[in-house]
Amino acid sequence: MSLNKILSIAGKPGLFKLLTQTRSGFVAESLLDGKKVTVSFKNNVSVLSEIAIYTLEEEVPLKDVFEKIKEKEEGGKTAVSHKDDKIKLEEYLFEVLPNYDEDRVYASDIKKIVQWYNLLHEHGITEYADVEETEEASKEKE
């Protein structure tokens, strides 16, 4: 499953898997407890594939940051917890993404990145590229 089916819903903890669309919104399933929720279009919802992290040069897509974490951790969970202190979280992100913009990326953002990565890892979602990107990459190799 790619990140374009994984959602963050403002005011609700964790991440959600998009199940289906309805007339007034959509139905999603929580990755934390498996409960299904109906979300209206009025809610503030972010699709993980659309989120990017500020660096000094450009914005780096969240999937690329997740890939760098995966590389650093050799496919395992993060060495830090989202509950660790601000300094430890900032040092961790600096190891993963050395040129991140410290003025625009807050400790709360780093907590979410670490928490989301670990939550996706727990659910076996470790391939972050879109299906289309994967197909294009395999065509280029041929």
From TrEMBL:
Domain annotation DUF5606: ranges: 3-48
Domain of life: Bacteria
Domain named DUF6852: residues: 51-120
Record-given protein name: DUF5606 domain-containing protein
Originating organism: Arenibacter arenosicollis
